[in-house]
Amino acid sequence: MLPVTTKVNSSTNGREVTLLGTYFSKELKLGKEDFVTGVRATNPWWKVQGGWPDDNSLEVLVGERLASSLQLQPGDQIALAGQSHRVGGILSTGGAEDDEVVAPLGVAQQILGKPGSVRRIYVSALTKPEDALARRDPKTMNPETYDRWYCSPYVESIAYQLEEAIPHSHAQQIRQVAQNEGTVLSRIQGLMLLVTLAALFASALAVSAAMATAIFERRGEVGLMKALGGGSASIAALFFTEAVFLAALGGTAGYFVGVALAHQIGQTIFSSKITIQPVLFPIILAIAVAVTFLGSAAAIRRAVLLDPVFALRGEA
Questions:
Q1: Rounded to two decimals, what is the model's pTM?
Q2: What residues make up the domain containing 100?
């Protein structure tokens, strides 16, 4: 972007304003790669009443407060530095641009008399939402943590690397986007924690009910094992082994379903890939086994206390 102070004249009024030169949707070529860049991509919160100007035209956008002051509408003509320009649209951003004229970058460079010059560069990148690691000062990190922070696509680490790559530059994140993503992430984390706790509690109740039903249906087998000399420990171990096997199956299925949902949430909300740490898989299995143990304990305890006489007669 390139801000320039110039005089704007309309049919009813005239005053000095800031003209902001920028790309709107500019096709550029970098080596063999073609891409499109501009404020329509980097500043998605900008709203235009009318149409967006072409980057190679003399059309401009006028901020809504400035347009109200000069009584301008889309399609009107204004003079900038003695040259006539058409108002393509009225711009609303909620920021300083509402009092400015936004024009193609070439127009600002021509008024300033410095072809090829810019003042600010906006970068649009797929980033990882801000978390505790992102907010840490890289100067206080050990080498391992620094490498993880540096290689993660945080807004902070990208800004840090831009300052490294461009001498005498200062990179600053656009907090309108980054903070919104961080807020959404915090709310999602809180919601997911509540859902997880509720799911664990419901799972424990379901396991307890299922195990109690299974033991009731197999009370004859339990009575026979006890009549043949089976101890309480061996009977409990049999049911716990079955429960662990089912917990492993359920935990594995839940892990892969959770990974798929996490990737979907990352792409849908943040347009970013969520990295799942491998250590999460054994943790999920351990939690599944623990929930199964807790849910099964009461039912298995009743099984080992069954009287074999009543169990074999079906009266337990």
A1: 0.51
A2: 2-112
